[in-house]
Specification:
The protein has 240 residues and is of the alpha+beta class. Helices cover 26% and strands 27% of the residues.
Length: 240
């Protein structure tokens, strides 16, 4: 059984000690040389925010994120607006104490074995308690990935055991994120072509099962669901 163990460093920023400064400098050289394995969560926390914004951490290996196309960015914003409104309504209805919707937010799935930090394109998560500043997979009620040609395998579960490759879909399932959506764009990047709704099955190592597909031009609603909370949207709501 694989167990994802979580570690939350103390809050606050006391600055870097000389050893960590040296590690960051060595990392910069390794990044330039393409040697990106073995990155600890402490080193990840010490890296500049601008650098981390363009990377994810996959079992200790840094992965450079591709810049989203204009359509990708527009779809992300439209979905975030819809989900923020629906999340606010869910809180007002007493379904959750507090929810936040965001885009491209660091989400820690586990620290060992191999620190893993992913950035869902859009996410809805439970508000953090007290001084805790970092979002973990167990905080998420919904993760959304917008698929592009370069991210299809990473986003949609095409694992390759031979090369030890795990998709985000697999890792989100292992982290226990119950709801996952896959958003596909039209070939010309002009609109959302469809949205797939997936839900985690039972068990510690459950897998996602598709429960609905909404297609532009094929279904009346762009989104129509009661889980993880009521969300309704038309295709006009998602236009860009």
């Amino acid at each position: 059984m694989t167990v994802a163990m979580n570690y939350e460093p103390p809050a606050g920023d006391a600055g870097l000690d000389p050893a960590m400064e040296a590690a960051v400098a060595a990392f910069s050289l390794a990044e330039e040389a393409g040697l990106l394995d073995g990155v600890s969560v402490a080193l990840w926390d010490a890296l500049p925010e601008d650098f981390c914004r363009d990377h994810e951490l996959d079992r200790g290996r840094l992965i450079r994120r591709q810049s989203g196309s204009p359509g990708h960015q527009s779809a992300s914003l439209s979905l975030a607006i819809v989900l923020k409104s629906a999340a606010r309504s869910a809180v007002q209805a007493g379904l959750f104490p507090c929810l936040r919707a965001s885009q491209d937010l660091d989400t820690r799935l586990w620290d060992v074995p191999g620190a893993t930090v992913r950035k869902p394109d859009v996410l809805v998560y439970r508000c953090l308690d007290g001084a805790r500043r970092r979002v973990w997979g167990y905080d998420l009620v919904l993760a959304v990935e917008i698929v592009s040609p370069s991210s299809r395998a990473t986003d949609t579960g095409k694992d390759n055991p031979r090369t030890a490759f795990e998709s985000k879909m697999t890792q989100y399932a292992l982290a226990g994120i119950e709801h996952y959506w896959i958003v596909r764009l039209k070939p010309d990047d002009s609109a959302i072509a469809g949205i797939e709704q997936w839900r985690l099955g039972p068990g510690f190592r459950g897998a996602y099962t598709k429960v609905a597909t909404w297609t532009n031009g094929g279904t009346a609603e762009a989104i129509s669901t009661d889980v993880p909370f009521p969300i309704q949207a038309t295709w006009s709501d998602l236009e860009f």
